[in-house]
Amino acid sequence: MTVGHETRPAAPPAPAGTGRVRHSLGAIGRATFLAMVAGFFALPLLWLATAPFDAHPTITASVPEFTLRNFRSLLDNPYALGSLANSVIQSAGSAVLVVGLAALAAYALSRVRVPGRDALLYCLLLLSSVVTGTAAMVPIFELATRLNLIDTHLGVILTLTGGLLPAAIFILKDFMDATPTSYEESARVFGAGPLQILWHIVVPVVRPGLATIGVWAVASVWGSFLTPFILLRDPEKSPGAVILYTLYTEGGSPKLDLISTFSLLYSLPVVLMYVFVSRKYGFRFHGGIKR
Amino acid sequence: MISLHGLTKEYPGGVRAVDALDLEIADGEFFALLGPSGCGKTTLLRTIAGLETATAGRVTIGGTEVTGLPPGRRDVAMVFQDYALFPHMDVTTNIAYPLRIRKVPRAEREAKAAETASRLSLSELLARRPGQLSGGQQQRVALARAIACHPRAFLFDEPLSNLDARMRLEARTFLKRLQRELAVTTVFVTHDQGEALAMADRIAVMSAGRIMQVGTPAEVFQRPANTFVASFIGSTPMNLLPGVVRDGALHVAGAVLPRPDGVADGEEVVYGLRPEYMDLAEGEHADGFAGKVSVVENLGTAYLVTLDCGEHLVQAVVPEDAEPAPGAAACAVPRHRRALVYRDGELVTP
């Protein structure tokens, strides 16, 4: 403190004391505010970490009365584990479709001159929020019924893919645009065909972009509730997000033991996926000059 | 051999980047396409490579017409300005890539890559990625990749422009020696006349999609066919002074010079002489350009002196230690034997 004071000889001596007090008060205020914000976000996570192991979970986070009984009673629920498998099927299916289709579309849009290309992309982006949104649920249900896609994984996958594609194309097109065309031209002069160029050059170069889109698609589908809730009848096909909604007593009060335990199991795969992809691909871009 | 007949490339919107161009490039020749930016030289190279489709005309490589063939079936290798090395592949994989496309077995193509790399002193760098190489090393990897596929012709787009000045001189000598050794027909594009003069066996000087002159560096330098080439070639620009032939003499910028061959009385011409062929004398001189020294530029072993001769500026190169002071009166005396005369922009000196 004194050193800091001495190095600033220009500071007038008299208000230095009040200035110091004001400074400390400011620091305390800032710390309190940050602690509150951190607490606001951390407490639900703390609850998620303690409640599943608590014999009598409440809606507040507390030191648990340790037990694994909640997990056993969750296993007794006929749909709990199956729903996680359904979540995996639906999110992996959608992610594969989104990454594959968006990569092809973004590559074409990035390389071929299409009149009104940007307007098209912006329109798609704008409409995509409507496609899977609540407003379009009735026509989508109608369409799915006529196509015999009600109560199938495919129906859910196609609907969610459609909703995610515009944004995915939009983001991937940016990655494709950033890849110099000389890479592809060079490969073309050596005799590579379009698919070879895509597979040997473009896909590896934009791989961090593909990984980002894949993770984003999985996370979006994993958390989506309305579409599978409406398109699926059979609880054996319902994903975790829908099953979570069924964990209530007949009276309508939440079974906190089951909800907390299931929530933990439900969020773990997504966290693991983030860690895995970040390790393996890294959400970064390595271009031609610096790695 | 590469032959172009009436080759035209017109972009949508009517811009003619290459305009009805005829050109013959001999086997094993090191050929430069030289011109200012936007003159169509890169478009021409890309049309030879097949990356651009010709609007009209024919391209023949090694006796086979390739005008309609895709780039991969023309048997040429191109080195791009940014080298276009694949960032996710190491040096070996980059060099072996053309062979991978030709379905050469992995062991064979890796051996071939290692052999080509050692020829270009890249053996130490085989496991590196392009991002870990210097500009000069990247260029050699790009060359090795082109060499490894044994093409009928090399096409280089501005091969030296991404190197710093010092590296560029080394690379110039290196490229010329390499081309001599390989003896493969090579076409390269450059906007740097010094590079073209230094490396090429022959040069085509281009402007606005047309060829202004084709010749050896000596021909293009000593006898530029028109005022465009005259002003473009040479590290110090040629003096190009308007004059008129009257009473059996050439009147130019206040000087009266003997009438050159090939022009008649009353004709308006442009008198061209390189500053290197002007001698600077003090005071007045019978057939010289008298004026006042306005600028003196240091060229290292010589000085470029600009004389203000009233309406026109005349430049002369003088040896070191002989430079005049700015403001002094001086006279530039031309060496008549080196003088060139242009009428309507075309050379008339026999």
UniProtKB/TrEMBL annotation, chain A:
One of its GO terms (biological process) is transmembrane transport. It is a multi-pass membrane protein. The keyword Signal does not apply. InterPro entries: BP-dep_ABC_trans_perm, MetI-like, MetI-like_sf. The keyword Transmembrane applies. Pfam families: BPD_transp_1 (PF00528). The chain crosses the membrane at residues 27-49, 88-107, 119-141, 153-172, 210-231, 258-277. It is found in: Cell membrane. Residues 84-277 form the ABC transmembrane type-1 domain. GO terms for cellular component: plasma membrane. Keywords: Cell membrane, Membrane, Transmembrane, Transmembrane helix, Transport. Its main location: membrane. Belongs to the binding-protein-dependent transport system permease family. This is Sugar ABC transporter permease. It comes from Sphaerisporangium rufum.
From TrEMBL, chain B:
The gene is ugpC_1. This is Sn-glycerol-3-phosphate import ATP-binding protein UgpC. Signal peptide: none annotated. Residues 2-233 form the ABC transporter domain. The keyword Magnesium does not apply. InterPro entries: AAA+_ATPase, ABC_transporter-like_ATP-bd, ABC_transporter-like_CS, ABC_transpr_MalK/UgpC-like, CysA_C, Mo/tungstate-bd_C_term_dom, NA-bd_OB-fold, P-loop_NTPase. The keyword Ubl conjugation does not apply. Pfam families: ABC_tran, CysA_C_terminal. Keywords: ATP-binding, Cell membrane, Membrane, Nucleotide-binding, Translocase, Transport. The lineage of its organism: Bacteria, Bacillati, Actinomycetota, Actinomycetes, Streptosporangiales. GO terms for cellular component: ATP-binding cassette (ABC) transporter complex, substrate-binding subunit-containing. One of its GO terms (molecular function) is ATP hydrolysis activity.
